[in-house]
Amino acid sequence: MNKFDGPKCPDYKQVSGKILEFLTKICNGTPLAQADARIHNVHYSLERLKIERLSGDLLPMDRCYINLAIVEWLGDNATRGGKGDTAQQSSPFSLLARLKVETPDKTIEVTLPTLFEPRKSQDGQKKQPSRILIRGRAGVGKTTLCKKIVHDFKYNNLWQGLFNRVLWVPLRNLKVEKRQSAGYNFRDLFYHEYFSQDLEGRELSEALWRALKDPKSGRTLFILDGFDEVSQGLGGDMSVFLEELLNQPNVIITARPNARLPPRLDPLDLELETIGFYPDQITAYIENTFTDRETIKEVQSFLQRHPLMQGLMRIPIQLDAFCYTWTGFPREGVPETMTAVYKAIEESLWKKDILKLQKKKDDQIKKASRKKIESFVEQELRFLECLAFLGFYDDVIDLDWELRNAISDRFESDLLLDKDLPCLSFLRTSDPSSNDQDRNYHFLHLTFQEYFAARYFIRQWKDKQQLNCLQLSRDNCNNMEPTTFLEKYKYNPRYDIFWRFVAGLLDADDMALDFFQMIEKEPRDLLGPTHQRLIMHCLSEVERKESNFTGLRARLENQLEQWLLFESDSTGNSELVYEMECSGQVLSNVLTQASESERTVLLESLSRRTAVPFNVIEVVSPWLTNRTSARQCAAILRILGNEHNNLPDKVLQSIAARLEDEDGDVQRAAIEALGGRADLPDQVLQSIVVRLEDKDADIRWEAIEGLRGRADLPDQVLQSIVARLEDKDGGVQRAAIVGLRGRADLPDQVLQSIIARLEHEDGEVRRAAIEGLRGRADLPDQVFQSIAARLEDEDRGVRRAAIEALRGRADLPNKVLQSIAARLEDKDRGVRRAAIKALRGRADLPNKVLQSIAARLEDKDRGVRRAAIEGLRGRADLPNKVLQSIVARLEDKDRRVREAVIEALRGRADLTDQVLKSIAARLEDENWSIRWAAVEALRGRADLPNKVLQSIAARLEDKDRGVRRAAIKALRGRADLPNKVLQSIAARLEHENGDVQQAAIEALLYQSALSLDVLIPHIRSFYDALLQKSFREHLYWYASERSFIGTNLGYISLTSEQHNVKEVVRKLLLEKGAANVNDGRRRLPSTLSC
Question: Which residues form the NACHT domain (predicted)?
């Protein structure tokens, strides 16, 4: 630099400027480091990741609960569900089931930190997922989940060992008009998403794109948010780019439940769904929202008294709205129905929005009546109602610019949509920063859309105006009378919550009578149960009060009571009482008028519910004292056991008294009813502890079960359970082990007591000790080695227990793995089987071990041969020689081995025609289980020759009922069956076995159309089978201008060239009613009028 004249020299300035530019770049790092830093510091700032409540307050991230549950490893049979927080689940027809807010089993819950941990796939092998789909409905927190992932990655080191960067991409942005350019690629995406405001944006985008293509630059995780918003409407190069984006090696894709994945999508490893809050999270949320302890207590008490409302609160946005509205509920008390709660929330949010819209001042709306509030926002309210209805009618959740404008044009309002809609609390937008034309809106939750859609329906009903049924998706607009709309859609399950709101809103205006009279009019469900469910659901939204509806309500409830009695009498079960919407009044009435046998059925069905109304408890609890039958008593105890809050001491004492009952089942039910209760008096707890010494092993077992999981057990009681490790009954020993297993608070002395038994002289005790230690993560290496040493134990039961204790552990040293493999040669067949099961599904097995398992295909023990087949099942890497060895076992002399072979071959895409023929040949096997397995293996395959199809159809005449059922199920999946096969299926409706009848109905209901002429010879049996099925599934028979059978969201047309369908059914119903009376059974309640 000393060559220049000085700092003012132009050349000096130019060179020094370049040097400064180089130094700045060195300080800032590489372009890739700059790109990562810019995304982290600008796009992932706390301001952008904030979560705002309806009140405007921010929700801290540590109080942001996002629960995920496994739906399935794609292709696996695991489905979302399970026992949840209780052993019961709600009815599949209930509000909670329809909203999908039941509490799933904790075993299928997945936490964010463990999202990418290895899990077992369908073939039993452990695999680390890298491509994950997360589904969830609007309002359950998908976008909140994305924010939490980004927040925890940046601030809490989430997945730092797995990924260098997380790129959150809202997929809806791909629809922005300025992005619709030819050859759109990742460089363009990065520029538009992250760097469009940077002078060096193009360079940073290029660096990030290069990193994506270069595996040495680190792993990139894409969060692709909102696939459902781009599943349609993209074309050309953007569609090609979307496919490339979705097929990245590391992705989390979020979508709504109904989104259809593209056909060319690379395989996904794991499917999850966002689920609602768990009960303990609802409690925590309430405690964090309110500061006053009395208010917290009032809110929790209200939810405990209203199970349906408690279920609704599992939806995060619903709980937020409920808490926001709590202090604004009427002075006379909190509303008792879902509709009344939504009305209160609506009014509360309108008051907030009136201020945002600058329509009135705060002091003008504080004491304003509901009618006055609605007058302030009349235009906004009418627009929302119309928007909700047309979107709901067209099955549209994302309300785009085209739909909003179409409604605005018909509405002829003065609303400025781009200015007014962002002020409405009932709507959320996918991207508040985008232009109005690129912005989609959706309601807070689908139930809010249904609520406002119901308001539109009622407005048109009252004004005697037609409904505007615009379908933009089909470019179709039909006007329809409200009564015609009700007639057409009253049984459509998609409208279930909509009709509840209609009933509740009309009741608020004293117009429920007109609505229920219209529901009762024909055409009616000719089966009956679906109609009764509709009545029951709508009645649950009508307050019990004196009005012009009182008389009809009494008749409707009496009709429902007759259906409950008919169902319990004819099926030996009751699905209708299982529904939470079945009122306490109806239940109390029907229980008191039922016969002894019917009452037993009703009580046992009620015991499956998560909760029953308190007036039912008042009716049934005295029957514990006046005991009539052991079955009834046990059912009542199970009902009371589900009520974990506010049971009177008198009832608790009645339960405790049954601990002395002469019937073992009743004693066990009493222990179960008392077990797990936090409010048990010491006297009752001691009554259970005493049962640890009972002479009946089953009672000792139940006592341990009743005490299991209680955190407040004194050391003395724990020692009493430990003593049962020496019980003479093996089942009690195992119960004691399970009762102690997993307790983090086990005193060291108790744990040492279990460990010491690894060396006990009695083999049964050594085995029990291994089982007690199994699954504990806190075992020292020394204990782990002691368990592994038991692989050489002289007792075969101990060797088996040791293998099972080590089975499934991902951290097995190679030496231990070899020791398990050595047990493949064990002299005991049970140990050999256990060794195969322990090795099954491990991805790290050397070929030598695989060959050792394959060698067991020739084992002299049939159970070992079967285990070997199961151990090899599902492995994609099987050598052809091993596959042929498995096929050869189709000729095994043992039927269960042959059955295992067919199961192992089932679903494999690499089966040759020869193998398929070998399986088909087993359709004639002498053993029924082989014939059954062969049908099951062939089921669902699209490439079956007609000859094989005919062979399956021939199994409809099989002498074994299980094979007949399997054959019908295999044919059920084919909608193109010829009449000859359909007639053969219909003939099975006359079979004496009910399972065969139901399988035949399922096969028939898969068809798109049925000819009544084919069914006429079996019409009575057809109707009976449909009726039985309709108690368990959404199924109805509708006859108006056309006749069809509704099956959930689909339907099957019924046609006939010779008969009037409705008249055939009418005649049948009259005959059935007379027949029921003649044979002493309850008459089938009328399905034609109230």
Answer: 130-261
Identify the pLDDT of residue 1015.
Answer: 85
DSSP-derived 3-state class of residue 220: strand
Which residues, other chains included, contact 736 with Cβ-Cβ below 8 Å and sequence gap of 6+? 704, 721, 722, 724, 725, 727, 768
Edge-to-edge strand order for the sheet containing 1035-1039?
1009-1011, 1050-1055, 1043-1047, 1035-1039
Look at residue 475 in the predicted model and tell me its pLDDT.
66
Helix 763-773 and helix 748-756, axial crossing angle in degrees, nearest 10: 140
In this prediction, residue 79 carries a pLDDT of 40
Q: Are 340 and 504 in contact (CB under 8 A)?
A: yes
- 72: part of which helix (H) or strand (E)? strand 67-72
- Return the closest-CA partner of residue 924 out of 948, 906, 894: 948
pLDDT along the chain (1090 residues), means of 10: 68 69 60 89 85 82 72 41 42 72 68 84 69 82 86 90 91 83 90 88 91 76 90 81 92 87 86 83 88 90 83 86 85 80 93 90 85 92 93 86 80 77 86 70 90 96 90 74 94 94 95 95 90 95 92 95 92 90 93 92 90 88 84 91 76 86 87 73 79 85 78 76 79 76 66 76 77 70 76 82 73 74 80 77 71 81 82 72 79 80 73 78 85 83 75 82 82 72 85 80 83 85 89 87 80 79 73 50 59
- R_g of the chain, CA atoms, integer Å: 33
Of 103, 80, 100, the C-alpha closest to 445 is 100
Phi first, then psi, for residue 419 (nearest 5°) are -95, -40
pLDDT at position 457 is 97
In this structure, what are the phi and psi dihedrals at residue 198, rounded to the nearest 5 degrees? -100, 140
Is the Cβ–Cβ distance between 601 and 566 less than 8 Å?
Answer: no
- Answer whether the bond into residue 523 is a cis peptide, omega within 30°: yes
DSSP 689-743: HHGGG-SSHHHHHHHHHHHTT-TT--HHHHHHHHHGGG-SSHHHHHHHHHHHTT-
Cβ neighbours of residue 155 under 8 Å, at least 6 residues apart? Answer: none
Q: What are the contacts of 774-779 at 24+ separation with CB within 8 A?
A: 774/741, 774/804, 774/805, 775/741, 775/742, 776/741, 776/742
> Would residue 427 be called left, alpha or beta, if left means φ above 0 and alpha means ψ between -120 and 50 degrees?
beta
The owner of tokens 């510091």 is: 41
Task: Give the count of alpha carbons within 13 A of 549, CB side only.
Answer: 22
The strand pair at 119-120 and 126-127 is best described as antiparallel
SS3 content of the chain, % helix, strand, coil (to 5): 60, 5, 35
Q: Distance between CA 943 and CA 938 in Å, rounded?
A: 10
Alpha-carbon distance of 404 to 244, in angstroms, equals 32
Would the pTM of this model clear 0.85, i.e. be above it?
A: no
Write down the residue that tokens 């499917």 correspond to: 271
Task: Name residue 170's amino acid.
Answer: P
Q: What's the confidence (pLDDT) of residue 503?
A: 97
Contact 1023, 1068 (CB under 8 A): yes
398 close to 476: Cβ distance less than 8 angstroms: no
Please say whether the beta carbons of 721 and 691 come within 8 A: no
Helical axes 664-674 vs 630-641, angle rounded to 10°: 10
Residue 888 pLDDT: 81
